[in-house]
Amino acid sequence: TENGFKLNTYAEPLIIWNYTFKFSQWITKQGTNCLVLNMDSPELEERHMLARSMGASHEWKVFEAHCTLSYDCGDVDIYNLQHPTFDIEVVCERYHPRKE
User: Fold this and answer.
1) DSSP state, 31?
2) How distant, in Å, are the alpha carbons of 27, 66, 73, 93 from that of 77?
3) Whole-prediction pTM value?
4) Cβ(28)–Cβ(71) below 8 Å
5) Which of 59, 74, 78, 95 has a beta carbon 3.0–4.6 Å from 23's, enabling a disulfide?
6) Cβ pair 67, 39 in contact under 8 A
């Protein structure tokens, strides 16, 4: 485990994305710029709803399907970054164990 996270690893990719991508910058709790790749992914939305139905929770008001690329990317210009031209395969998930 890393920072209290557990890891699920899959023999085959769980989800394959080939959708619309968009780069965003979010501010972390530590005040750094976090670089994420947002994606329109019905599969990940379904996975999120399944986790919620099993009691999962999160700190954010809205769920946004994304892949975190950096937790401290500095002042990168997200408008000049090149979007992926390939599928993104999810081969593992990190999660916190459910609190009872």
Assistant:
1) S
2) 15, 18, 10, 28
3) 0.72
4) yes
5) 78
6) yes
What CA–CA distance (Å, rounded) separates 27 from 72?
9
Q: Compute the residue count for the chain.
A: 100
3-class state of residue 17 by DSSP: strand
- Name the strand (E) or helix (H) holding 45: helix 42-53
DSSP class per residue in 72-100: ---S--GGGSPPP-S-EEE-EEEEPPPP-
Other CB atoms within a 10 A radius of the CB of residue 57 amount to 9
Host H or E run for residue 15: strand 15-17
Q: Which structure tokens are listed for 1?
A: 């485990």
Alpha-carbon radius of gyration of the chain:
15
Q: What is the pLDDT of residues 12-69, one digit of tens each?
A: 766 666 678 899 999 998 999 999 999 888 888 888 888 888 888 877 788 888 889 9
